[in-house]
Design brief:
Blueprint (H helix, E strand, L loop, with lengths): L15 E2 L1 H9 L1 H9 L8 H16 L9 H18 L14 H17 L12 E9 L5 E11 L5 E7 L9 H19 L5 E6 L4 E5 L3 H24 L54
Parallel strand pairs: 1-3, 4-5
Antiparallel strand pairs: 2-3, 3-4, 5-6
Helix pairs in contact: 1-2, 3-4, 3-5, 4-5, 6-7
């Protein structure tokens, strides 16, 4: 509900942090505001929807007995999972509204099938029995910050070692950008550690777009650093929420943003801020003897 002043009474202050939203704020604070506070709608993209479809296939494949987890079986699941996805989100059909003959949809589904098939060159599902799939995790730190997210797959060895696995339908980053790619996985590892008291033995990113597997074995010091980073990030989010000061941060990713029409960097005007703004008055410095005189520059 929007009042005459333009303020949305349903808007809520952020109460938790996920890897995606943390990445949003680090990428662009204004993008975080648009998604979390303003909740501006975004058009579905072919790439993101294909990722959702591939994830659904890889999750459901483990419903079958190990001997039936074949590449052919997985490929055959793609059309059916697409129909299920459409049932839950009919708006996704907008992606192919201008494709009356279905040619683009056919190519898109074929690309999803190739990604699914490539997974079999990277892992052998007949030898895997995941402990969890699409696991929702949540924990509250001593500071009160609540962390949450969804892990694609959790494997547990007989000895109790934990491996967190995440599927990516894009290509693996160059080595100099690997740390950024691992941020999400370290976030999940921190949640597992604070929730269960167990440091995951391995973090594994499976890049279906390029056929690469990126692994990392975290230690407590890693997770403590991530926790400090998240606490500092949360302080910045709380300050921006209180002041209403959400600065855009232009990057090459702006070309993919759905909100350029309301972004000041592109000549737009953001919607009225839907939360009350607290005016912060900073204490003034005590007067000095030389106040008012120009000293040497």
């Amino acid at each position: 509900m929007t009042t005459s002043s333009g303020r949305d009474d349903t808007a809520q202050r952020p109460t938790s942090l996920s890897p995606s939203r943390a990445s949003d704020f680090m990428q662009c604070p204004l993008l975080y505001r648009f998604r979390v506070i303003d909740k501006l709608p975004e058009k579905p993209s072919e790439a993101a929807t294909r990722g959702t479809l591939v994830h659904a296939v890889l999750e459901r494949l483990f419903d079958d007995p190990a001997t039936e987890r074949t590449a052919g079986r997985a490929r055959a699941m793609v059309p059916g999972q697409w129909e299920r996805l459409l049932e839950s989100k009919p708006q996704l059909m907008e992606l192919f509204a201008e494709d009356p003959e279905g040619e683009r949809l056919s190519r898109w589904l074929a690309e999803a099938e190739k990604l699914v098939e490539r997974w079999f060159t990277l892992e052998d599902p007949t030898r895997l029995e995941p402990a969890e799939r699409e696991l929702f995790v949540e924990t509250e730190l001593e500071s009160g910050l609540r962390l949450r997210g969804i892990i694609d797959r959790v494997d547990v060895t007989p000895s109790g070692d934990v491996r967190i696995v995440d599927y990516k339908t894009g290509k693996a980053p160059r080595p100099e950008y690997a740390e950024g790619a691992l941020f999400q996985m370290k976030f999940y590892a921190l949640v597992i550690w604070r929730w269960k008291g167990v440091v995951p033995r391995r973090l594994q990113l499976v890049y279906l777009g390029s056929g690469d597997v990126l692994t990392y074995d975290p230690v407590v010091a890693d997770l403590e650093r991530v926790e400090r980073k998240l606490l500092a990030l949360w302080d910045a989010i709380k300050e921006a929420t209180e002041t209403g000061d959400w600065r855009p941060r232009p990057t090459k990713l702006c070309g993919w943003c759905d909100h350029r029409a309301v972004c000041p960097e592109f000549g737009g005007t953001p919607p009225a801020y839907p939360l009350p703004v607290a005016l912060t008055v900073r204490p003034t410095d005590p007067p000095r003897e030389d106040q008012g005189r120009m000293g040497p520059v």
